[in-house]
Design a protein that fits this description.
single chain; 14 strands; oxidoreductase; about 350 residues; globular; 8-stranded mixed β-sheet; about 20% strand; alpha+beta; 9 helices; Jelly Rolls
Length: about 350
């Protein structure tokens, strides 16, 4: 049985990190200071390390010759199986659109606090401006401001939470999200083929897929060794697309063999990661991976994240093609809407939310 969710609480403007940074640039309130075991420490590989997440060239999968396509497909298979993360290049999204979404996102975060607070993230929800996944007065906060919006299907949107400033924000999100949706559909087709499944397996199964966008702004922090930009977690999505802001500090880290590996931005590439839902569907062959964000003493960071998942009405479980004597069923069947509710009403704690679907042994 799933644990009873903690009661969500309000996090007021007093905890807005941009305002904290503005008013007391050298002060780190206790609410942000992590316990020793959670702090970013030396268990992170150096940025100069050759340990880098794989890069997938989507154009080779779509338009390459037979040898190129097969080689890239094998690389995609190993990326999903061994890393759960990869960066995709030649993805077909115009550089001008990537730049436009970064500009409106940054323009929003630079607005006065009273303007941003017109779109508050209500307790127990994940849409609007503020802190998500906060359920107790003594829970540590992430050194991050975020704006999260439901995009598709339309009924999940809350129009009151779509900012009217900057003027082109809504229009740009619509265009960007449409392009990212096509990318997700393309990637899932190739992911299906990499598993020897019919190409449209996920597209047909997902129904009208759920899509949400979240913009994260991480101000500089005088003591980056004491805080986290975003708590360690895996995503509840099928796949997640992350755009790292141009010129931002390196902040994304993934847990690989119990070591935190920083993800070096590649110009105009998008970072893709496997979510819990795809781990369940592949019966653990492709695993969602724990990741976190750290802060920088002098530089800020912007990221734009898109979550892509099945319709809330869909019942999910491991695909029969991926269950056999050597790979017994690891997850139960469940309603995706129930899992989504469970995910957003629990704290970010590594991969703990996936316990919802695991079969007890």
């Amino acid at each position: 049985m799933a644990p009873v969710p903690l009661s969500p609480i309000n996090v007021g403007h007093i905890d807005d990190v941009q305002e904290l940074r503005k008013d007391r640039p050298s002060t780190i309130p206790d609410r942000y200071v992590r316990d020793m075991v959670e702090r970013p420490t030396l268990d992170t590989v150096p940025l100069s390390s050759s340990l880098q997440i794989p890069i997938i060239d989507l154009s080779k999968l779509i338009k390459g010759n037979k040898d190129q396509s097969q080689s890239e497909l094998l690389k995609l298979y190993s990326s999903c199986k061994d890393w759960g993360f990869f960066q995709v290049i030649n993805h077909g999204i115009e550089t001008s659109l990537l730049e436009a979404i970064e500009k409106v996102a940054m323009d929003f975060f630079m607005l006065p606090l009273e303007e941003k607070e017109k779109y508050p993230m209500a307790p127990g929800t994940v849409q609007g401006y503020g802190h998500a996944f906060v359920f107790s007065e003594d829970q540590k906060l992430d050194w991050c401001n975020m704006l999260a919006l439901g995009v598709e299907p339309h009924y999940i949107r809350n129009p009151k939470l779509w900012p009217t400033k900057p003027a082109k924000l809504s229009e740009t999100i619509e265009m960007y999200s449409s392009n990212i949706r096509k990318l997700c559909q393309n990637l899932l087709r190739f992911i299906a083929v990499s598993l020897s499944l019919i190409q449209d397996t996920f597209d047909e199964m997902f129904g009208v897929a759920v899509q949400a966008v979240r913009m994260n702004y991480y101000p500089p922090c005088s003591r980056p060794d004491l805080v986290l930009g975003l708590s360690p977690h895996s995503d509840g999505s099928a796949i997640t697309v992350l755009q790292q802001g141009k010129g931002s500090s390196v902040g994304l880290q993934i847990l690989k063999d119990n070591i935190w590996v920083p993800v070096q931005p590649v110009p105009n590439a998008l970072v893709i990661n496997i979510g819990d839902t795809l781990e369940v569907l592949t019966n653990g062959k492709y695993k969602s991976v724990e990741h976190r964000a750290v802060t920088h003493k002098e530089n800020d960071r912007l990221s734009i994240v898109t979550f892509y998942a099945p319709s809330y009405e869909i019942e999910l479980g491991p695909l029969p093609e991926l269950v056999d004597e050597n790979n017994p069923c690891m997850y139960r069947r469940y309603n995706h809407g129930e899992y989504s509710h469970y995910y957003i009403t629990n704290k970010l704690q590594g991969k703990k939310t996936l316990d919802f679907a695991k079969i007890s042994t």
